[in-house]
TrEMBL record:
Matches recorded under SMART domains: IG, IGc2, IGv, LINK
Function: Essential for the proper localization of brevican (BCAN), mainly as a perineuronal nets (PNNs)-type deposition in the brainstem and cerebellum thereby playing a key role in the formation and structural organization of PNNs. Contributes to the formation and transmission of inhibitory GABAergic synapses between Purkinje cells and deep cerebellar nuclei neurons.
Species in which this protein is naturally found: Sinocyclocheilus rhinocerous
Domain named Ig-like: residues: 18-131
Protein's name in the database: Hyaluronan and proteoglycan link protein 4
Domain Link: 135-230, 235-327
InterPro entries: C-type_lectin-like/link_sf, CTDL_fold, Hyaluronan_bind_Proteoglycan, Ig-like_dom, Ig-like_dom_sf, Ig-like_fold, Ig_sub, Ig_sub2
Keywords, in A-Z order: Disulfide bond, Extracellular matrix, Glycoprotein, Hyaluronic acid, Immunoglobulin domain, Repeat, Secreted, Signal
Principal localisation: secreted
Pfam families in UniProt: V-set (PF07686), Xlink (PF00193)
GO annotation, biological process: cell adhesion; central nervous system development; glial cell differentiation; positive regulation of neuroblast proliferation; skeletal system development
The family this protein is said to belong to: Belongs to the HAPLN family.
Disulfide bonds: C181-C202, C280-C301
One MF term in the entry's GO annotations: hyaluronic acid binding
Length: 352
């Protein structure tokens, strides 16, 4: 039977060739674009086992208990799957090391991973949680609030260089002060919202602060806002200095002339949170909204709290503002893993 290794107490075993897997408790933390090792070690009882009979498999497990293959090795055969191709390799720090290295971390890599080691008919598993440094931000489209079903919420986050946030990410953002009085979709299909300052219009003034939870909602028929999550940028967001303000189309062209693109909402939030971008000037961003990032609150800059100010979605043709641009780094060295090995042992007939 599979057991969560973080909760297991090792016990005496017989001589049946049992496999014992151990993973680190808690979580490992990195950021988008980084490289991380997911730790996993194993041993056998007894220990004289042919290495060519050991199968190591890594799988990503979603909150909805959906499984995505990541990497598998049997003897000298190896295979990576899907978006993990070219980005994963085993650490090989010594006998019994099944740790996997993931290069060039993406937002979609966030989550829970299963390490499974199999010796013929015996197997055991452990779990590792991969967390990302980043920022959660609420989002609603130009059409207004409560207009997104779950699938549309997924898409708008993706369009703004982000993913739907998890409950853990939203809870952490609430602990850091996020206060938002509109319910939004999360990655697991639930609808929640964080309240730091209880008030009448946000679920009663006498209710305690916390993350309010509407539970799991119908993904196709019900509409809410979205809570998105983004992480480190492979580039820089900046306010384009110009002598005059511009409409939306002129803003897009101005960034292009500066060898950049107009910044997405997620990129502006990441620049505010991670790169500490502080600019008290309103500017266009990619979705047609007007925003500006404030790290150090001050008079005439939108209130006493830090954050990304949102002035809404004005007329793209006739309203004039500045613009926030994004320029991608061009001097970042590749962090790709070695190509996967697919050579087979001469005496191997077993599929991986």
């Amino acid at each position: 039977m599979k057991r969560d290794a973080t909760q297991r107490i090792l016990k005496d075993l017989d001589d049946t060739g049992a496999v014992i897997v151990q993973t680190a408790p808690g979580k490992v933390v990195t950021h988008r674009g980084g490289t991380i090792t997911l730790p996993c070690r194993y041993h056998h009882e007894p220990e004289d086992v042919d290495p060519n009979h050991i199968r190591i498999k890594w799988t990503k497990v979603s909150d909805a208990f959906q499984f995505e293959d990541v990497f598998v090795e049997l003897g000298r055969q190896q295979k990576a799957f899907g978006s993990y191709r070219g980005r994963v390799s085993l650490e090989r720090a010594g006998p019994g090391d099944a740790s996997v290295i993931i290069h060039n971390i993406t937002l979609q890599d966030y989550g829970r991973y299963e390490c499974e080691v199999t010796n013929d008919m015996e197997d055991d598993t452990g779990f590792v949680n991969l967390d990302l440094e980043g920022v959660v931000f609420p989002y609603y489209p130009p059409s207004g609030r409560y207009k997104l079903n779950y699938h549309q919420a997924e898409e708008v986050c993706r369009q703004q260089d982000a993913i739907l946030a998890s409950h853990a990410q939203l809870h952490k953002a609430w602990l850091e002060g996020l206060d938002w009085c509109n319910a939004g979709w999360l990655e697991d299909g639930s609808v929640q919202y964080p309240i730091s300052q209880p008030r009448v219009q946000c679920g009663r003034k006498d209710s305690p602060p916390g993350v309010r939870n509407y539970g799991y909602r119908h993904k196709d028929d019900e509409c809410y806002d979205a809570f998105c999550f983004t992480s480190n940028l492979n580039g820089r967001v900046y306010f384009l200095k110009r002598f005059k303000k511009v409409n939306y189309l002129e803003a897009v062209k101005a960034c292009q002339r500066d060898d950049a693109v107009i910044a997405k909402v997620g990129q502006l939030y990441a620049a505010w949170k991670i790169q500490l971008l502080d600019r008290c000037e309103a500017g266009w961003v990619e979705d047609g909204s007007i925003r500006y990032p404030i790290v150090n609150p001050r008079t005439r800059c939108g209130g006493p709290e830090p954050g990304v100010r949102n002035l809404g979605f004005p007329d793209k043709k006739f309203r004039l503002y500045g613009v926030y641009c994004f320029r991608r780094n061009t001097d970042v060295q590749s962090t790709q893993a070695p190509k996967e090995t697919i050579t087979k042992p001469a005496n191997s007939t077993r599929s991986i």
